[in-house]
UniProtKB/TrEMBL annotation:
<keyword id="KW-0699">rRNA-binding</keyword>
<protein>
    <recommendedName>
        <fullName>Large ribosomal subunit protein uL24c</fullName>
    </recommendedName>
</protein>
<dbReference type="InterPro" id="IPR057264">
    <property type="entry name" value="Ribosomal_uL24_C"/>
</dbReference>
<dbReference type="InterPro" id="IPR041988">
    <property type="entry name" value="Ribosomal_uL24_KOW"/>
</dbReference>
<dbReference type="GO" id="GO:0019843">
    <property type="term" value="F:rRNA binding"/>
</dbReference>
<dbReference type="Pfam" id="PF00467">
    <property type="entry name" value="KOW"/>
</dbReference>
<dbReference type="Pfam" id="PF17136">
    <property type="entry name" value="ribosomal_L24"/>
</dbReference>
<keyword id="KW-0694">RNA-binding</keyword>
<dbReference type="InterPro" id="IPR014722">
    <property type="entry name" value="Rib_uL2_dom2"/>
</dbReference>
<comment type="subunit">
    <text>Part of the 50S ribosomal subunit.</text>
</comment>
<dbReference type="InterPro" id="IPR008991">
    <property type="entry name" value="Translation_prot_SH3-like_sf"/>
</dbReference>
<dbReference type="GO" id="GO:0005840">
    <property type="term" value="C:ribosome"/>
</dbReference>
<dbReference type="GO" id="GO:0009507">
    <property type="term" value="C:chloroplast"/>
</dbReference>
<dbReference type="InterPro" id="IPR003256">
    <property type="entry name" value="Ribosomal_uL24"/>
</dbReference>
<dbReference type="InterPro" id="IPR005825">
    <property type="entry name" value="Ribosomal_uL24_CS"/>
</dbReference>
<keyword id="KW-0934">Plastid</keyword>
<dbReference type="GO" id="GO:1990904">
    <property type="term" value="C:ribonucleoprotein complex"/>
</dbReference>
Length: 77
């Protein structure tokens, strides 16, 4: 059985990004995944997904969502 590492961040914590493209930006933790050791921070690391229409009367769209960041790249304020 694989053990999960204890993460120092919890949902609702204010964190600062300490490395990567969004360095020195702050936000609130929305979600924590202990299995992959990643966190989702509100307003940080947006990604875009292009969605094709599924039926003839729908239109395609571009969905925007926050991608996870590894917990070692954030620090609690």
């Amino acid at each position: 059985m694989a053990q999960t590492k204890k993460l120092n961040v919890k949902v609702g914590d204010q964190v600062t990004i300490i490395s990567g493209f969004h360095k020195n930006e702050t936000g609130e933790v929305i979600k924590v995944d202990k299995k992959t050791q990643k966190v989702v921070v509100q307003g940080i690391n947006f990604k875009f997904k292009h969605v094709k229409p599924t039926s003839e009367n729908e239109i395609g769209e571009i969905k925007q969502f926050e991608a996870p960041i590894h917990h070692s790249n954030v620090k609690i304020n």
